[in-house]
Amino acid sequence: MSDLSSASATILIADFVNVDAAGKVNVIGGGIQFLGSDFDSGQTAPFSVFVSVTVSIPSFDETQAAVEVVLVDSDGQPVAVPSEEGGNVMRFSQSVDFRHTTAPDMQQPPIGFPGCSNVVLNFPGGLPLPTGTTYEWMVLLNGTRLTTTSFFVPGPSK
Questions:
Q1: Pfam families, alphabetically (predicted)?
Q2: Which letter does DSSP use for residue 110 in this model?
């Protein structure tokens, strides 16, 4: 997919998100900007990230693109969380085909009808993020930044 001028993305942090069998998105507690933290464990509260990427498909030739969701710090640098193997950068990517799939006996949407892909990232145990810091989830399409959303992890006042 070479022309990304018609691409857009939405990103939302929530308590919980899932996509049901019919493709409908279910969001509970959406719009989080301040992510709680357990000071004893060093983990944030459980949360989910929902991303929806929409592109206008001018033809059915170039319909694939790489969608990435990256956690970055206030300097725009990817965040690595501690793990047994060292640090894992919070970067999730997948190749997406934006073509519409319908049953063989169903009419296809017209050329130019937007294609959409939803990504849900669930963190039921939270993440080990330092408090007092601002972060952003960034969405990229083929390496081009589409959107970001910021959140803050508050800590105890000093």
A1: DUF6941
A2: P
Which tokens in the block code for residue 108?
């296809």
Cβ–Cβ < 8 Å for 78, 136? no
- What CATH fold (topology level) applies to the domain 8-153? Immunoglobulin-like (2.60.40)
Cα separation, 63 vs 2, whole angstroms: 9
pTM: 0.87
Q: What is the mean pLDDT of the chain?
A: 88
Is the pLDDT reported for residue 100 higher than 80? no
Domain boundaries of the chain, sorted by first residue: 8-153
CA distance 96 to 93: 9
What is the separation of C-alpha 38 from the centre of its chain, rounded to a whole number of angstroms? 23
Name the amino acid, one letter, at 29: G
Tell me the three state secondary structure of residue 26: strand
pLDDT for position 60:
44
